[in-house]
Prior knowledge:
A hairpin with a 3-residue loop joins β14 (about 350-355) and β15. The protein has helices spanning about 5-15, 40-45, 50-60, 70-85, 125, 185-205, 230-235, 240-245, 270-285, 310-330, 370-395, 420-435, 440-450, 490-515, 520-535, 545-555, 565, 575-580, 590-640, 650-675, 680-705, 720-725, and strands at about 85-95, 100-105, 110, 115-120, 130, 150-155, 160, 170-180, 215-230, 290-295, 300-305, 305-310, 330-335, 350-355, 360, 420, 470, 475-480. It contains 22 helices and 18 strands. The strands form 3 sheets. Strands 9, 10, 11, 12, 13, 14, 15, 16, 17 and 18 form a 10-stranded mixed β-sheet that branches. Strands 1, 2, 5, 6, 7 and 8 form a 6-stranded mixed β-sheet that branches. α20 (about 650-675) packs antiparallel against α21. The radius of gyration is 28 Å and the shape is globular. The protein is an alpha+beta fold. The structure holds adenosine-5'-diphosphate and magnesium ion.
Amino acid sequence: MTANPTRLGAIREIEANEAPAAFFDVAEETGSVFGENVFSLSVMQKRLPRSVYRSVAATIQKGERLDPAVADIVAKEMKDWAMEKGVTHYAHVFYPLTGLTAEKHDSFMEPVGDGTAVWEFSGKTLVQGEPDASSFPNGGIRATFEARGYTGWDVQSPAYILENPNGNTLCIPTIFVSMTGEALDHKTPLLRSQAAMSQQAQRVLALFGHKDIDNVVSYCGPEQEYFLVDTSFVNSRPDLLNTGRTLFGARPPKGQEFDDHYFGAIPERVLGFMHDTERALFKLGVPAKTRHNEVAPGQFEIAPVFERANLASDHQQLLMSTFRSIAKQHGFECLFHEKPFAGVNGSGKHVNFSFGNGNQGNFLSPGDNPHDNAQFLVFCAAIVRAVHLHGGLLRLSIASAGNDHRLGANEAPPAIISIFLGDQLADVFDQVAKAGGATSSKQKGVLSVGVDTLPDLTKDAGDRNRTSPFAFTGNRFEFRAAGSNQTVAAPMTVINTIMAEALDFCATELEAATAAGTEFNEAVQTLLKKIIEDHGAVIFNGNGYSEEWHAEAEQRGLKNLRTTVDALPEYLTPESRALFSTYGVFDEAELESRFEVGVEQYVMTINVEANLTVEIAKTTILPAAVRYQTELAGNVAALKAAGVEADTTDLLAVTELVTALRTGLKELTDAQAGAHEHEGIAEAAYHRDAVLPAMLKVREAADALEDVVADDLWSLPTYQEMLFIR
Ligand code: ADP
Ligand code: MG
């Protein structure tokens, strides 16, 4: 056991932690609280006049425009409902480009001018808010002197009550735009992209002869990985506290090599935390369902049931903030950083997605008749085209300084975006591609044969491929490259938009062919064949972690955007500009602003990490090392004075490392000083190429010192302690 007072203190604190396993009453009827704090459709149905309810429901379910006349009535009922639940304030909640959640609280109270006040909430305040936009990242869209920004009610994402011991708040999910209508958030483009995708998908459905075509939506089920580390440790790790990851730390003697954590028994304290988070999420209507240990020690996963992408995205943000605050109540810090511990698996967020609607179901579900299958194959082929043409954008949508540590590090897919179809589906596409060249009568036969011989494509028909960034998993695709800290809105926006383009292409081809008299099945056959020929290069069923794949991918012409700095320029390519403007998702100014914000955030992240590296090395690690060096030197001197032969091996080794640490520090501060000579993306590249490697050099010396310096002098909690004690 360590005798270092800081670390010992932390361990004693954890031992003394008497937090109950779970705070809530375990006897409570399961599920009884679900949606309790949500102004849901069912609450609205009970409280709103029938015509008003119908109007709001049409907006929510069918994406119809909101009738402004109903806003006042909805607002009043919403306020009454909230006040019955102890709410005094409301907040427009939005998702600025920081990736965090922002909320501005206002009271329902309105002074009436005679010294008294009434409690009021008008339709106008429900529908629109006006926070100061200048304090949020905007990449040049907003000059500070014209700071106005607007929030607008997202009717499709229900209002909810956030409970807090210090007062409950009615939260209204909103979009956040500038005075000139430019998106300053993650939600606006997501909603725009949904609309674009829906429009094109409906054209395809019409071609397949569907009647009563509903608004199409994308669904998203995000699996969220996270670490729990005891607060007592985190408090004495300034790096974890400020950057979410450890900038120092020697590898523990025991890591994850035994594979003994994944799906293992969940520790009692952690289970208490999970119970409480799930209950809080249930109240908010977030369908948290699956939970288990993850691969790394101290790592866990939660997966809510999939929902419409914009709701899933809001719920995902809510989930992360709920986890953070409930973890604290249990004496934990919940880490969403992509790589909190070097040498230990990091955390991702798998974005499972599909498309569909109420009437026509899930379009990525193979179904069990040939007709369904043909439609399913068109949607899958559209995905193949979309991912092949716009792999760079998908890579961009999950780019961050944190995620750079994970991608391609043999724990997450590489930065090369490819598709895994599974043996069965790959084989079907193979047949389609090969059969296409036959005579026309045969072609028709082949299509039906191709489709008929499709073995019933059941869920889990194919094996899994953990190394693929984009894998078909039975009735959905799983985009596995997203980072744990990231909003799912960004990847879902790209997925919707690139699907809008691909479905547009499919619909246009099919429309043209049938107009020219080609039989529909034959037109489908030709289309599938064309897509597989043109875009099949993106399909890869092998091992994505292998070296050979990197070489092969290059031959196939697939992009390998290794770092965020490589990915950011994808915002500004002519193809991206054309794509996003055609489908009305981002205009030029918005793309440029997102590029700038991305660059800024990358530079800031590395810069803060570098500052902390210097501070911790100088004030914590170097002093410990020098003390130990002095102790060893004293020992050598004392032995010599006593006429005993002194072994100087340890002293020399420590001295060498102390010198390396000092040199590293000098190089790092020099590197930081040089940053001013660069600007924009060049400054980001400089941070990647000069600052990050210099940080790593400091870390190498420091971690080597951790392995030799006397344990009682080492005050930073170790990997072993942080990962295994809870
Ligand atoms: P696994 O670990 O096997 O991938 P999980 O149960 O952990 O599976 O998570 C799967 C996620 O995929 C869940 O969020 C689930 O709701 C979601 N999902 C399932 N079907 C669909 C679908 N059709 N569209 C989108 N997401 C889906
Ligand atoms: Mg899972």
